[in-house]
Write a structure and sequence with these properties.
About 30% of the residues lie in helices and about 20% in strands. By secondary structure, the protein is an alpha/beta fold. Among the domains are: about 110 residues, Urease, subunit C, domain 1 (Roll), CATH 2.30.40; about 120 residues, Diaminopimelate Epimerase, Chain A, domain 1. It has a seven-stranded parallel β-sheet with strand order 8-15-16-17-18-19-20. A six-stranded mixed β-sheet has the order 3-2-7-21-22-23, with no helix packed on it. Helix 13 packs across helix 15. The mean pLDDT is about 95.
Length: about 550
């Protein structure tokens, strides 16, 4: 009688299974990419054969591979090598931004675009003026995207290049800011107005360009222990890029496709083709479809019932309660069609008015086509007041929580909404106590991809700068980790294959440099990943 022989064995560690009972093991064995045994070292090592690779964990803590259930690796990939990164860790002031642009201009031809992204006006000295941008770009077209992806700055040459001129009309669901006294452009474009520039700049992108960038992005993200990503607002080009990577064996990250509602006809094509959520395999799977009707709190465009506080940006409407980017009847019809076709519906809602807008469409889907276990998601779902919390529970919607915002953007949220509002901003303590499922995500590269930064904020309820986000909503480290493992998998209907380390599930593991479960809470953000394992195979070592 033949005995079970494992392909891979990892032993001598503290392995957090994150199963229903939060059990630990010291060793795990995998065969053909899946876990075949968990337990004590001697028992698991007995499964070794001539061809088994045996790896000593040397007492280190291991956790299930991280699942980032809403992020944009494709967007980041398309910009590597051609766009300028101007994130706060590189750009600390407006002068530094303008110097960086001036240096970039020297390396470009007169007609070449200078495109920048991840700019944070709050942390990097505010928005430059049109005149300052024109001088720095030295005659070249310039576009600076704000880190949230909802706003961007353009110089005069950029307005000319995209055919807008000096006095453009506002597009539907977007605007070009103007000085309140003169009526002249400030250079700031909001929402669909910013997408005019983005569409022009990205017009030359190819699937192979995106694929090449994704290889670099995923090499970095594996170093954070991430083994699965759900690519939000995933477009045609990105879907093609993922398939090319899979075919050429270059894909080293499990990818969930969340089909973009921003591309006309794309979701409709999925509906017409009969593709349903769950189509694919363990490397590439269709998770659902997504629309983005709500905006950015840090950029002061997300939809709230009460106006923003703090100092308005020049050209911002006063009072400002934000904007919504879809007509309600139009969005509802699109969502119902997708839901009836078997595609999991995901709608972005950030402010309380935006979340209600998303829930209106979700409730209409359920009225048209009732479903008990629908798992429709409100993406980001930041400002969850008690009334919205009750509605989420009643509807059975998933709070797909932008926990990454807490760390990178928490200070701007507090400045724009006030200290009292933090009681209901990403209120994970209340969500857990109410039984509302709330997986966490980075929204990278709006925010940093490193999950331990967001987990740190969930536990400590502080932003990166120490801004108080109301400690009454703090959760335990175990609860925070579940948001990035079991709940992430559940939110994409993949809980049968990932999210915890159990027999029969994928052998996706992150090995940490310190014990997540016993270190001081303030040290969680300093965790580094020593090793990442995908399907039993080591794909990253520090």
């Amino acid at each position: 009688m033949s005995r079970l022989v494992a392909d891979q064995i990892y032993w001598g560690g503290k392995i957090a299974t994150m199963d229903r009972d939060d059990r630990f093991a010291s060793a795990v064995a995998a065969r053909d990419g899946r876990i075949v045994a968990l337990g004590e070292d001697d028992d698991i090592r007995a499964l070794a054969g001539d061809g088994t690779s045996v790896h000593a964990l040397d007492g280190r803590t291991a956790i299930p591979g991280i699942i980032d259930s809403h992020c944009h690796p494709d967007m980041h990939a398309a910009r590597l090598g051609t766009w300028e990164v101007v994130s706060p860790d590189r750009i600390g002031s407006r002068a530094a931004l303008l110097d960086h642009i001036a240096d970039a201009a020297k390396a470009r031809g007169h007609d070449d675009w200078i495109a920048c992204y991840r700019f944070d006006d709050v942390k990097s000295g505010g928005y430059p003026t049109l005149d300052e941008m024109d001088r720095a770009a030295d005659g070249r077209p310039l576009f600076i995207q704000r880190t949230d992806g909802h706003l961007g700055l353009a110089n005069r040459r950029a307005f000319t290049e995209v055919g807008l001129g000096a006095d453009p009309s506002d597009p539907p669901f977007g605007s070009f800011d103007r000085h309140s006294d003169t009526g002249e452009l400030t250079g700031l474009a909001r929402e669909t107005a910013a997408h005019i520039f983005l569409t022009h700049i990205h017009a030359g992108d190819t699937a192979e360009m995106v694929a090449a960038g994704l290889e670099q992005v995923f090499d970095e993200w594996l170093g954070y222990g991430i083994t699965s990503v759900y690519n939000s607002l995933c477009g045609r080009l990105s879907i093609e890029a993922y398939q090319k990577m899979r075919q050429s064996e270059r894909l080293r990250m499990r990818v969930g496709i969340i089909v973009s509602g921003r591309e006309d006809g794309l979701i409709e094509a999925f509906i017409q083709s009969g593709v349903r959520s769950g189509f694919g395999d363990d490397m590439i799977r269709v998770i659902g479809v997504e629309w983005c009707p709500d905006c950015s709190t840090s950029g002061r465009t997300a939809a709230y019932y009460d106006p923003y506080v703090g100092t308005p940006v020049e050209g911002e409407p006063v009072p400002n309660t934000g904007v919504l980017l879809y007509d309600a009847e139009d969005l509802t019809a699109r969502a119902i069609a997708a839901h009836q076709a078997g595609l999991q519906v995901m709608i972005e809602g950030v402010g309380d008015r935006g979340i209600d807008f998303a829930l209106d469409a979700i409730e209409a889907c359920l009225e048209a086509h009732p479903a008990d276990d629908h798992r429709m998601r409100v993406e980001h779902c930041c400002y969850v007041t008690p009334q919205i919390l009750d509605r989420l529970k009643r509807v059975g919607a998933v709070d797909s929580s932008a926990t990454g915002f807490m760390y990178d953007l928490g200070g701007a949220y507090r400045a724009n909404r006030g200290a009292d509002a933090m009681r209901w901003m990403w209120p994970h303590r209340s969500l857990i106590d109410a039984g509302v499922p709330a997986p966490g995500h980075s929204d990278a590269m709006v925010c940093q991809a490193n999950p331990f930064l967001a987990i740190w904020s969930m536990v400590n309820r502080q932003s990166d700068t120490g801004c108080d986000l109301d400690k009454s909503q703090a959760v335990s480290r175990e609860e925070a980790l579940h948001a990035y493992t079991t709940l992430g998998a559940w939110s994409g209907r993949e809980e049968a294959v990932k999210g915890s380390l159990e027999i029969g599930k994928l052998a996706d593991i992150a090995v940490l440099d310190r014990d997540f479960f016993s270190i001081p809470a303030e040290d969680i953000r300093d965790i580094q990943v020593d090793m990442t394992v995908l399907g039993g195979q080591i794909v990253f070592q520090r």
